[in-house]
Amino acid sequence: MSRYERIEMLAIGDELLDGRVTDTNTVCLGRALTGLGLTLAQRTTVADDIEAIVRAARAAIARKAGLVVVSGGLGPTMDDITAEAFAAVAGVDLVRDEEQVRAIEERLRSRGRAVADNQLKQADRPEGSEVISNPRGTAPGFSLVHDGCRFVALPGVPHEFEYLLRTTVIAELGADGPQIVEATLYTFGLVEGDVDALLQHVRRKHADVRFGFRAKFPEIHVSFKVEASRQTELEAAVVAARKELGAHVYADVPISMAEVVLNLLRNEGATLAVAESCTGGLVADNLTDVAGSSDVFCAGVVSYANTAKEKLLGVAAETLATVGAVSENTVMQMANGVREQAGTTYGLSTSGIAGPGGGTADKPVGTIWIGAVGPSLAVARKLSLPFDRRGNKVVTAYAVLDLLRRALLTNAT
Known about the structure:
Elements lengths: L6 E6 L1 H4 L6 H12 L6 E5 L3 H13 L4 E5 L10 H9 L3 E3 L1 H13 L6 H4 L3 E3 L3 E3 L8 E6 L2 E6 L3 H19 L3 E9 L3 H7 L1 H6 L4 E7 L2 E9 L3 H15 L3 E3 L5 H12 L3 E5 L5 H7 L8 E6 L3 H8 L3 H6 L5 H15 L3 E7 L14 E8 L2 E8 L4 H24 L1
Parallel strand pairs: 1-2, 1-3, 3-8, 13-14, 13-15
Antiparallel strand pairs: 4-5, 6-7, 7-8, 9-11, 9-12, 10-11, 15-16, 16-17
Helix pairs in contact: 2-7, 3-4, 11-16
């Protein structure tokens, strides 16, 4: 275990309190600690105010915190006062580090920027603290030990914070404690409570494995962590969990549903086109977010109006008049139409009522039809979704890709 029994986070910045900026640095720290089998005990957020920072630091000392990671307030502007505040905490003077002055000057000049006095302010640190050089930016951090607590102050810019956190704090903590191994299963089609219920007996059987659940709409990620010496038990837990979750597991590495589908199509030497109504191009957007998708994904048609469904995809006017755009017959004709027009192996389609208006007694808001066609494949599925307009579109885009994913997996076996 870490030599620090209590680890806290102190995030500094008016922008974190008034909603202008989301505090992703605390999330970064929390995840990094969890990966080491450690826990973040508390997060405190304060404004750009010296007295507030001093009070927060002293409160952490009173709580017997051994390590406090501090984020923000190290830049060149007048509200960047973290170094000054911690000099007040420790009752010491601010000193200017000449080596950091030279590093700041060199970085600015290499980018064609003037060296102003406020930029050099970033080289100030509390007397007696250790400088943490920052190769990713102009603002260095510092480490200060006071009253039994170590404060590690890092720049608030997320990519700078993450780099320095990983190379300083996390590297040190990892050396102190046991090595942790982990795995993750990425699922779609179940809510968090259902995933938890399905895995209850797996968790009881593998009590030494730490299970975690993260909802990232519309996915649920299941994580598994254990000390490296018990990796065999982790692997057994993952196998058991996969069996319980079945086809809802779409990946065991951090890739998107779209990338999984594209890889399956690529392995089959197949191509894809999509016809979208209610999703408005979101399926195509998911596919083209994946670099290199053009070798598989050939075309997308957004046929929002019924006239577009007829003219672009060949949907029969009679079908639209009798059963409507939101129907099994329509999505199957859409999928076949886009497949024929693009000359692809597979075609996908979506049509529905995303809301908030447009629903009827027979077809309420959230009624969606999705379709998939291809060699030996002709399947449609009706969805009844409870989300807002955006949520219904996102889930539908996932669901139609998932429909094809499952079909391709069946072909592969």
